[in-house]
Design goal:
Blueprint lengths: L5 H22 L16 H8 L8 E2 L5 H6 L4 H8 L23 E3 L7 H15 L5 E6 L6 H12 L4 E7 L2 E2 L2 E2 L8 H6 L4 E5 L5 H16 L5 E6 L21 H9 L1 H4 L1 H24 L14
Parallel strand pairs: 1-2, 1-3, 3-4, 4-8, 7-8
Antiparallel strand pairs: 5-6
Helix pairs in contact: 1-2, 1-11, 2-8, 4-11, 5-6
The structure holds thiamine diphosphate and magnesium ion.
């Protein structure tokens, strides 16, 4: 696929993620996907804007809501669908599911169901990169809810103290499950992170993959030349329910207005010519991945204790 400009390339990558998650929604009622799913529909621009400026060897650590980052970092569509199906050909051998995707061959180091738990993993990887002088930039992606965990604060402090090559990337969708940010936090996420002496930036237009790409590109350059950690907060909006394939605007904890406002800015919903141009290739790749997952074998009993420490 050739692209006329960066906007088109990022658009393609974001659309690829959205269509993959929409396929998950279609398949899910058949019970062939053996895993709870936390979808990123509405948040894809952040994943593509963050991953595009990275090198393949730059490690990225995700959260349990990581299909988008797995794919944007270069993880294979086949590997992801096979993992969701619980098949032996999945990236984690079919034993881990949606919340524990991994593709270390492209620097997607893993994701975890335990909120904030991959943040210190990333800081440890950044310490190793600094000591070994590998030139890598490590990225840790987490939600606004994760900033309420103690280990998040310990990680920021340690990274600032040792001037580690790590980018903290907060996907602020304003929600932790059903709890609104304004009901939970007395602090501003960026303002608080800055008190550790970390340079912070806020991106309010989290639907704009080019803007995210530019901000992250500048931060990554600064980290790579040895300026220490950086912190970026991207505002975003989750279209689906917290976990599962449904919509939850009728449940009573959030109104529809902000969804409609966000969708009015969403490039994937507002540039039909690009959608039409890119959809066939994306559909072929997803069809192939689903077929691969369906025809793959289950892990056998001999796999039960493999990779179990
Ligand atoms: C240590 C820990 N505490 C609580 C939970 C339950 N839990 C799962 S998701 C979630 C909300 C996290 O919100 P956020 O970090 O903003 O991520 P988002 O789901 O919005 O992407 C909570 C509290 C958990 N999985 N792990
Ligand atoms: Mg959140």
């Amino acid at each position: 696929m050739t692209f006329a400009n960066p906007h088109e390339q990022l658009f393609y990558e974001a659309l690829r993620i959205r269509r993959a998650e929409e396929r998950i929604i279609e398949i899910y009622p058949t019970d062939r996907i053996q895993s709870p799913v936390h979808l990123s529909i509405g948040q894809e621009a952040i994943a593509v804007g963050v991953c595009h400026p990275l090198r393949i060897e730059d490690p990225l650590f995700g959260s349990y809501r990581s299909h988008a980052f797995f794919l944007a970092k270069g993880g294979s569509m086949r590997s992801m669908f096979a993992e969701l199906y619980g098949k032996a050909t999945g990236g984690s051998g079919g034993k881990a599911g949606s919340m524990h995707l991994t593709a270390p061959e492209v620097g997607f180091m893993g994701s975890s169901a335990v909120v904030a738990s991959t943040i210190p993993n990333a800081v440890g990887a950044a310490l190793a990169a600094q000591r070994r002088e590998t030139g890598q930039v490590v990225v840790t992606v987490f939600g606004d809810g994760a900033t309420e965990e103690g280990v998040y604060h310990e990680s920021l402090n340690f990274a600032a103290l040792h001037q580690l090559p790590v980018l903290f990337l907060c996907e602020n969708n304003g929600l932790a499950v059903h709890s609104k940010l304004s009901d939970r936090q007395a602090y501003g996420i960026c303002e608080h992170a800055a008190t550790y002496g970390i340079t912070t930036q806020r991106c309010r237009e989290g639907w704009d993959f080019v803007r995210v790409n530019d901000l992250v590109g500048q931060a990554v350059e600064a980290i790579r030349r040895g300026d220490g950690p950086r912190f970026i907060e991207c505002r975003t909006y989750r279209y689906q329910e917290h976990v599962g394939i449904g919509c939850d605007h009728d449940v009573g904890y959030r109104p529809r207005g902000p969804l409609e406002a966000w969708q009015a800015n969403d490039p994937l919903l507002n540039e039909p010519a690009l959608v039409e141009a890119f959809d066939p290739a994306i559909r072929d790749e997803i069809d192939d991945a689903v077929q691969f997952a369906e025809s793959s074998p289950w892990p056998g009993p001999e796999q039960l204790l493999a990779d179990v420490a």
